[in-house]
Amino acid sequence: MNAQDDVVLIVDDVPDNLAMLHDALDEAGYTVLVALSGEQALQRAVQAQPDIVLLDAMMPGMDGFEVARRLKADARTAPIPVVFMTGLTETEHVVAALAAGGVDYVTKPLKPAEVLARMGVHLATARRARQQTQQALQARSALDAFGYASMTVRVGDGRVLWHTPLARTLLQRYGGLGLPVVPAAVQEWMARQHAAVVAGGGEPPRMALTAVQPAAEGGADGRLLLHLHPPMEEGEAGELLVVMREESGSAAITLLRDAFALTGKEAEVLYWVAQGKINRDIADILGSSPATVKKHLERIHTKLGVETRTAAAASALGRLRQGG
């Protein structure tokens, strides 16, 4: 993007005083709009969506400080950088300009070359912010479209800032992971991982957290794993992307059945063997006898081409780690 693509809104109740600046901007290729009052500035900003606003601090009626506050309070105009133009150089006025939402200020009488240089810096920063926002929106749309259970969480207070529909379903299914704030245990886990990344300067490990057990209606054999992803771009370092994955015993049993050509009962036995259960415990779970479990296990060994219980468990766990 170059200056010919940028729109500058100049707000001053005496525009003739800024003729030299107007001409310099026009000569540099900017599209220049002028507003003569605070009310007109707010209307023009919403309608034209300028790339930057040069705002006179002292105007009759609504002054520049109030204009800036209103621009920043409106989601449609909040991202637009505001540079104050002021003859007031006292510290309190500079602080007031920045507190109202200004990113910079230039003093009168204006020097066009200085204004152009300052504008260039803030326009470049605003472009990068827009690009990052667009990239984040595209990434979120992709996650949503492909059915990933993902959410963005603010590290400081655990607030869920964004989530895909599938993520909402899982959050509601698993007791204790309600919106809009994740539980304290999850906040603490995220804060530890985030601190480790900041200290080490690298990406966080793809750690998983078994957050909660599901509610009874969600399936008693499942668990929800939260995988922490690296921090986002600078400026969003306090937000983390978390991808959720539900691990279901029934889904795992189906996977083992299909992977090793087992019967349904054999797949159930192999699943519980992989969980470290002994034959007596498996019999209790499945409502059968230890002898029946032993016969299933013998057939499992044959189908898997292994000789020991440990080898069968290792084969099952390896296949489950690979996923579907």
In short:
The protein has 324 residues and is α/β, with parallel strands linked by helices. Helices cover 49% and strands 18% of the residues. The chain contains 12 helices and 10 strands.
Strand content: 15-25%
Spans where pLDDT lies below 50 across 5 or more residues: 205-220, 231-236
Q: Which sheet architecture does the biggest sheet show?
A: 5 strands, parallel
Order of helices and strands: EHEHEHEHEHEEHHEEEHHHHH
Cα-atom Rg, whole angstroms? 30 Å
**Average pLDDT figure:** 80
**How many E strands?**
10
Structural class assignment: alpha/beta
| Order of strands, widest sheet | 2-1-3-4-5
The helix count comes to 12
Helicity, as a percent range: 40-55%
Shape: rod-shaped
Measured distance between first and last alpha carbons: 45 Å
